[in-house]
Design brief:
Layout lengths: L4 H35 L1 E10 L2 E9 L4 E10 L2 E15 L3 E5 L6 E8 L4 E6 L4 E6 L3
Antiparallel strand pairs: 1-2, 1-8, 2-3, 3-4, 4-5, 5-6, 6-7, 7-8
Length: about 140
Amino acid sequence: MTKQEIPLKKIVILFFCVFAFTLSGCKKEKQEEKAVQNLIGVWVNVTFNSTYRSTITEYDLKANGVGNEIIAVAAGSTYTVTSDENFKWTTQNEKVLKLQFGSDPEELYGYVLDEEKGSLTLTSASGTVREYLKDRN
């Protein structure tokens, strides 16, 4: 080997390493984008409080990073909206959903998205777990 061949081999190896890292980084970004795209939509949770009373929580996550939370109580044949608030939302590393209502601090939720079932499981910082189903309408 001559002195010129060694640096050339190092350059070629370095080029392939950089290329491989770039491709793996792009793949990760695309996976994160897909996860965010799959969060967009209306998600509904129904909690049965008693035989004739339920609390319905609906999150509408829009593509522009804003959303709406509606909480309603259904009792018998009546349906009463108890809360209707707008919020900003974003994700962090495919595992954390951040919601910010007005000027309040961000609320962090661990999330698991099951695309096959159409479910979104949110775990609050206090450990409360709720499953939301995607409204396909």
